[in-house]
Design a protein that fits this description.
The protein has 132 residues and is of the alpha+beta class. It has helices at residues 3-31, 37-43, 45-53, 55-58, 63-69; strands at residues 73-77, 80-87, 91-98, 110-114, 119-125. β2 (80-87) and β3 form a beta hairpin. The protein is globular.
Length: 132
């Protein structure tokens, strides 16, 4: 391969890498990222739990929680509040804050990954309605 051929090939490889990097960055922006345990820990787990649970009384989410954690919506769920981050035809995923603790939670159609005593990531399988 001539020197000019090598230079041209090198430019194509660099352009491909740039396009891939731009594509990955753009997809992350479009898809968004759900907050994790470290985000809650950094924010202050007790403050987070208190502010999210206040939704049960006020039916409004604290503006600081909205700006820091950007949930799609908040819902009362079981004995606490669910911050929804992803919802499809089959699943709902988000951060669940219980009034007491997460001990014993889980089972058929419900997966819980505890982060703290009463805060964790939850995945709920939606039940399909049967026709009779």
């Amino acid at each position: 391969m001539t020197r000019q051929g090598c230079v041209a090939w090198h430019k194509v490889v660099i352009m491909d890498r740039k396009l891939i990097a731009i594509g990955v960055f753009a997809s992350l922006l479009i898809l968004g990222c759900s907050p994790g345990k470290k985000d809650v820990e950094r924010y202050g787990y007790e403050k987070f739990a208190r502010q999210v649970l206040s939704f049960k009384e006020t039916y409004t989410l604290d503006p600081e929680i909205i700006s820091e954690f950007n949930p799609r919506e908040a819902k009362e769920y079981m004995n606490g509040v669910l911050l929804v981050y992803s919802e499809s035809g089959r699943y709902i995923e988000g951060i669940y804050v219980d009034q007491e603790d997460l001990d014993g939670m889980g089972g058929s159609g419900l997966s819980v990954t505890p982060w703290f005593k009463n805060v964790g990531w939850i995945e709920i399988k939606k039940r399909q309605k049967t026709r009779r």
